[in-house]
Amino acid sequence: MAFSVDFYAEERKNIRKTALLVTLFYIMMAAFGLIIDFAFGMLPIFTAVFLSVATIQFLVSIYSGKKMVLRSLKARPYNPKNFEEKQLKNILDELTISAGLSKPPELYVIDNDEVINAFATGFKREDAVVCVTTGLLKTLDREETSGVIGHELSHIVNRDILIMTMISALIGAVVIIQIFAARTLINYLRFGGFARGRRKSKKDNTGMAILVFLATVAGLATLFSFLGKLSLFAVSRTREYFADARAVELTRNPAGLASALRKIALISKKLPTANTATAHLFIADPLKRKVNEKSSAFASLFSTHPPIYKRIATLENRQPEEVRKELQL
Known about the structure:
Elements (H helix, E strand, L loop, with lengths): L6 H34 L4 H28 L2 E3 L5 H17 L6 E5 L7 E4 L7 E5 H6 L2 H16 L2 H40 L6 H46 L2 H13 L30 H6 L5 H9 L3 H8 L2
Parallel strand pairs: 2-4
Antiparallel strand pairs: 1-2, 3-4
Helix pairs in contact: 1-2, 1-6, 1-7, 2-6, 3-5, 5-7, 5-8, 6-7, 8-10, 10-11
C-alpha cells in the first residue's frame, strides 16, 4: 500500500481519544446547561438535566448499544447448518487468530441478497460483533471475503468500535435534547403560545420568554449536534483507511479487499434497514449516498466514508482518477 501505519500506536491513540472525547463532551453538556441556566435564572436545573441525559445515554450505549444496532438492522445470529455461513465462520476464526484476539467476535447475518456490505460493532473486543449481508456471502469469493472480514476485525483490534460507539452515544444525547425542545416548541406554538398571547396583556412577557427559552435550547442542541456529526464523519473516514491497511497486514493480500470494494461499488444496492445513525459502521456506505464518492472540500465535511475509488487505488497502488474512470463514478 502507499502508506504505512504503526497500528499499536493507533490503538493507544484511540483509547486516549475516547477518554478525551468523553471528557470534552461532559464539559460541553455542562456548558450547554449553564448557558441556559444563567440566561433564564434557573441554575442548576438544566445543567443537572443535561449531564443526566449524557450519563444515561453513555450507559445505555455500553450495555445495550450493540443489541440496538443489530435489532435496527434486522440482523440474526449466523446459522452453522448453512454452508456459506459456516465457511464465513471458518474465515473469521482463522483471521481472529492472525489478529491476536483472544476469541472470535460473534457472527451475525443480514438477510439481503442484493446488498454486499459488512460492519463491526460492540463496546469492547470481548463483546464485539461482525455482521455481513447474505449478498456478500453469495457474491464474494474466499479472498474477497477474507479482505472484508480482515477490515472489520481491524476495527475491533484498533478499538475503532469503542470510539465510534462513544461518538454515536454522545451525539445521541444531544439529539434527544434537540428533539424534545423542538417538539415542545412546535406544540407550544400550535396549541398554547399564540392563543394565550392574544388573550393576555402585552405586558405579560411569559409567553415570549417560553418561546425564547425553547428556541434557545433547540438552537443550541442543533448546533452541538451538527458539530458532533461533523466530528463523527471525520473520525469515520480516517478509520476506514487504517482498517484497510491493517486488513492487508492480516491477509497479506491487498487484491482481495480491492476486488471486494470494486464489487461493492458496482453491484451492491442500498440497504433498506440502514439509516444515518448506523451508516458509518459499515465498510462502505449502505445508503449509497453520492457525497461519499466526491472529493471536494464540502463533500469531505459530510461524507462518512472516503471515496471507494481512492481506497481501491491505494490498495492497488494506482492513480485514483484512473480507478474512478474505470468504475465510472
